[in-house]
């Protein structure tokens, strides 16, 4: 029998932008954070947070925790008192590396609270809350829905659509052992862009959607160029140019910054994926940077809820 007072929420990592899809396009990947929410008896206290996994010691275990802040936001939106809760966090997604760790926290907090409150908020409201908390949809929408998602605002409401992903296209990530804050990465961008740069990105974003669908090498090599954020951010990532060139030499279609970085994402044919991963890891190693490079797959499920029996 399901336990209405306990729920486990599993949320995938994401890679946002993919070059020209700045702040509007992202893809869910098969790395996961897991969050267990248990409603407490008031006599047990109001909040307990624990975290396990790599970098767990860096997770705040008080009311400033982003999972809990999102939990509280859902309760406020539903117009109910925040219940006492225990939150257990199991980390697999690296923190502050451009793989959507904050989106996992937001999605989990909102959806965990919604379950414990017997679902007072519908999906569109959940999505709007999540985007407002995250600031943009490129990570949070694929984290919630899975797959490759593109989002756009129309008349104050967010709309999203899934982009079919060709089975021959493999995502490869190289995750260095240093961080780059989203705030720092955003500060280096200019406040305005030329008409030529806007036109460039619009055309390349269209190529990107088509290339993802068809798996065309030439389309993806063209598509992943960008003039809105990557030219300003690549210089913040130690060794990025060398890693990119090594990946291209090994057969990658192109290499982009995953989200705000410093993780780099290559797209390549599945037959070349392991070679590309090895080349990216080796290139960073030769520059004195520790890194984990791995071939990933798309997560097609998005955020999942598992009720205790």
Describe the structure.
The protein has 309 residues and is an alpha+beta fold. The protein has two domains: 6-163 and 298-307, Ribosomal Protein S5, domain 2 (2-Layer Sandwich); 169-295, GHMP kinase, C-terminal domain (Alpha-Beta Plaits, 2-Layer Sandwich), CATH 3.30.70. The chain is built from ten helices and eleven strands. Strands 1, 2, 3, 4, 5, 6 and 11 form a seven-stranded mixed β-sheet that branches. It has a four-stranded antiparallel β-sheet with strand order 8-9-7-10, sandwiched between helices. Strand 1 (6-16) and strand 2 (25-39) form a beta hairpin. Helix 1 (66-78) crosses helix 2, helix 6 packs antiparallel against helix 7 (217-223) and helix 9 (240-249) packs antiparallel against helix 10. The chain is globular, with a radius of gyration of 20 Å. The N and C termini lie close together (5 Å). The model has no long low-confidence stretch (mean pLDDT 93).
Series of H and E elements: EEEHEHHHEEEHHHHHEEHEE
Strand proportion, as a percent range, falls in 25-35%
Cα gyration radius (Å): 20 Å
- Which fold name corresponds to the CATH topology of the largest domain? Ribosomal Protein S5, domain 2
CATH architectural grouping of the largest domain: 2-Layer Sandwich
By helix and strand content, what is the structural category?
A: alpha+beta
Helix content: 25-40%
Separation, N- and C-terminal Cα atoms: 5 Å
> How many DSSP-defined strands?
11
User: What global shape is seen?
Assistant: globular
**Helix count from the secondary structure assignment:** 10
Q: Mind telling me the CATH class of the largest domain? A: Alpha Beta
Report the uncertain regions. Answer: none
Mean pLDDT rating: 93
């Amino acid at each position: 029998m399901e336990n209405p007072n306990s729920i486990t929420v599993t949320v995938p990592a994401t890679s946002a932008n993919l070059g020209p899809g700045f702040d509007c396009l992202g893809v869910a990947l098969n790395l996961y954070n897991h969050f267990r929410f248990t409603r407490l008896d008031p006599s047990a206290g109001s909040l307990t947070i624990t975290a396990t996994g790599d970098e767990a010691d860096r997770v705040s275990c008080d009311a400033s925790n982003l999972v809990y802040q999102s939990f509280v936001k859902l309760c406020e939106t539903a117009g109910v008192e925040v219940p006492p809760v225990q939150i257990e966090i199991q980390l697999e997604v690296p923190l502050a590396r451009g793989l959507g760790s904050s989106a996992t926290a937001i999605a989990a907090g909102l959806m965990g609270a919604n379950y414990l409150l017997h679902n007072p908020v519908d999906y569109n409201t959940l999505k709007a809350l999540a985007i407002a908390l995250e600031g943009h949809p490129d990570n949070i929408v694929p984290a919630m829905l899975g797959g490759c998602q593109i989002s756009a605002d129309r008349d104050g409401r967010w709309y999203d659509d899934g982009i079919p992903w060709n089975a021959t296209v493999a995502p490869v990530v190289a995750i260095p052992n240093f961080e780059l804050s989203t705030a720092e990465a955003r500060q280096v961008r200019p406040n305005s862009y030329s008409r030529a740069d806007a036109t460039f990105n619009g055309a390349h974003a269209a190529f990107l959607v088509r290339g993802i669908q068809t798996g065309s090498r030439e389309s993806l090599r063209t598509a992943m160029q960008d003039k809105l954020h990557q030219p300003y951010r690549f210089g913040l990532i130690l060794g990025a140019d060398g890693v990119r060139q090594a990946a291209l030499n090994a057969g990658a279609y192109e290499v982009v910054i995953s989200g705000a970085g410093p993780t780099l994402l290559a797209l390549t044919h599945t037959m070349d994926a392991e070679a590309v991963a090895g080349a990216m890891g080796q290139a960073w190693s030769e520059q004195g940077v520790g890194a984990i490079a791995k071939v990933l797959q798309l997560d097609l499920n998005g955020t999942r809820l598992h009720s205790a029996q």
